[in-house]
Design brief:
Shape: elongated
CATH superfamily of the largest domain: NAD(P)-binding Rossmann-like Domain
Number of helices: 8
Structural class: alpha/beta
CATH class of the largest domain: Alpha Beta
Number of domains: 2
Helix content: 40-55%
Largest sheet: 5 strands, parallel
Length: 215
């Protein structure tokens, strides 16, 4: 299994099932995609901006929903194996991605795994255990959140530094070494808490370069 990032902007995600798993995935995907959740009932859960449709389709009805919405991804999150299998089959026939919430352990070929994710734009970190241990995925996600709390700020800082060094006609190896020193500097990470200006000054000191001076 090879991890990839997928942009769901302007795409539809169709979710069958409104239990805890379906609701969690609805919240996740609704931040970017148009999400439709189909279920015979909805408990008092948060589904984000997803569209909730009260319906109890049989396997044939599942296929009709897939044809109607033309989703980029189908999430099969019901507690009925036959319905999940029908959703998977319909998704594959349309060439859509499919995520079966009841597919634990050995993953079927082509099944999409939704990992535990840490997001601090523009940085995204994800961890998955192949369905073996959701608890471990959560633990690692929380550890990443704590250890790399300012990853987004670091990405922006080093991205700007890289462009400035490039404008100053430094060699690729010099740019690479400079950015690595900044990324690996505990001083810079600590300075990020004090604001961008402070972090820039510390980064400049670490590599011996004045940011903003491309002469």
């Amino acid at each position: 299994m090879i991890p990839l990032l997928h942009d769901f902007s302007d795409e539809t995600v169709l979710i069958f099932g409104a239990g805890p798993v379906g609701a969690r995935k609805a919240r996740r995907f609704a931040a970017e995609a148009e999400v439709v959740v189909v279920s015979p009932e909805f408990a008092d859960r948060e589904f984000g901006a997803a569209e909730l449709v009260r319906a109890a389709p049989d396997p044939a009805g599942v296929r009709e929903w897939v044809d109607r919405t033309a989703p980029a991804l189908v999430v099969a999150a019901t507690d009925i194996a036959d319905l999940n299998a029908a959703a998977e089959a319909a998704a594959r026939e349309r060439g859509a991605l499919v995520n079966r919430a009841d597919d634990h352990g050995e993953q079927d070929v082509g099944n999409v795994v939704v990992p535990a994710t840490v997001r601090d734009d523009p940085v995204v970190m994800a961890v998955a255990t192949g369905g073996h241990s959701p608890a471990l995925s959560k633990h690692l996600r929380e550890a990443f959140e704590a250890q790399f709390a300012d990853a987004g700020k670091m990405a922006e800082l080093t991205g700007e530094l890289r462009e400035e060094l490039k404008s100053a006609d430094t060699s690729p190896s010099e740019r690479r070494d400079a950015v690595r020193r900044v990324v690996r500097s505990d001083r810079v990470w600590k300075a990020l808490d004090s604001g961008r200006s402070k972090a820039e000054k510390v980064a400049a000191d670490v590599i011996g370069y004045q940011m903003g001076d491309t002469s």
